[in-house]
Amino acid sequence: MRDNSSVHWRRWMDGPFIGGDPPLVGSPRRATRPDRFFTLHLGFAAADLAVAREVAVGYAEALSLLRPELALGASALSPADAWQRAERLFCGAVGPDGERCLDVAGHPGFHHAPGPGGLGWGDGDQS
Fold first, then answer.
1. What is the DSSP track for 50-96?
2. CB 111 within 8 A of CB 96
3. pLDDT score of 126
4. Which of 32, 48, 73, 81 pairs with 112 at a CA distance of 20 to 30 A?
5. 18 pairs with which residues across the strands?
6. Other Cβ atoms closer than 10 A to 30
7. Tell me: the pLDDT tens digits for 23-63?
8. 3 state SS of 42
9. Phi then psi for 79, rounded to 5 degrees?
């Protein structure tokens, strides 16, 4: 077999086998890739950056309730014409058991794991 393209492999693998046994060499298989992350940019109007942060946090939290596979901690906010100036919406500090804090970025006090009664850690009340 001179050509090693997938068409020739399929024809060879699907054809009749001598003696009824499949060959020892199978068609090449592609290794499965791990899932990659992608970013969805949603546009909305707000009076200023502080209001935009509140609205963006609300959108991110609401979407994470509807679609739990969303990476809430990776949410970011940027002006529509300056995506390179994106800022994180959530803290993301790593806790002692590997969980991440999902409180808003720059929050005062302890870090908290997601969910009701989530583990709290950190330096205490910083106010």
1. HHHHHHHHHHHHHHHHH-TTS-GGG-EE--TT-GGG-EESB---B-T
2. no
3. 43
4. 48
5. none
6. 5
7. 666 666 666 777 777 888 889 999 999 999 999 999 999 99
8. coil
9. -65, 150
